[in-house]
């Protein structure tokens, strides 16, 4: 078996840290990627508020953990080859920084590297309702090559739990990287 591909996962300061956590859990199971984790300071507070996990629990799901302020990290360079990056959840502040190439921390720098190198960058933008400024930022990053994927539930799967809803979004994220799991029910059409 060859060397593992690398995937960067970032959790930022928006409600919905469970999406990034579940992504790390699934990546740990499928073992296809070496995972590189970055957690913002506000995401750390949300982890305490929204989950029963501690930071060490989440860090243990990743192969390598990077400090959000370490701009000398290998993932801050395009010469460090990755399959891309997922920001789950992606705060509007982070979206704004990425859209404006304002690389003031490792999350926004690594995202900028993905865009400049033509690598996948999937942003689970978590805000509602959206105003024109948010939409403009999303347009700007989409034009630069990012994939905007708000964590929107799908009800054709007949979700019975929050896990079903989270797994649907995480499965869709993995699809973007060519990893097709069975963690959610796929649409098979409907005869009328």
Structure overview:
There is one protein chain. With 192 residues, the chain is an alpha/beta fold. It is built from seven helices and six strands; from the N terminus they run βαβααββααβαβα. It has helices spanning 17-30, 41-50, 55-59, 92-99, 106-117, 132-144, 162-176, and strands at residues 5-11, 33-39, 64-66, 84-90, 120-125, 147-148. It has a six-stranded parallel β-sheet with strand order 3-2-1-4-5-6, sandwiched between helices.
Describe the secondary structure blueprint for this structure.
Blueprint: E1 5-11, H1 17-30, E2 33-39, H2 41-50, H3 55-59, E3 64-66, E4 84-90, H4 92-99, H5 106-117, E5 120-125, H6 132-144, E6 147-148, H7 162-176
Parallel strand pairs: 1-2, 1-4, 2-3, 4-5, 5-6
Helix pairs in contact: 1-7, 4-6
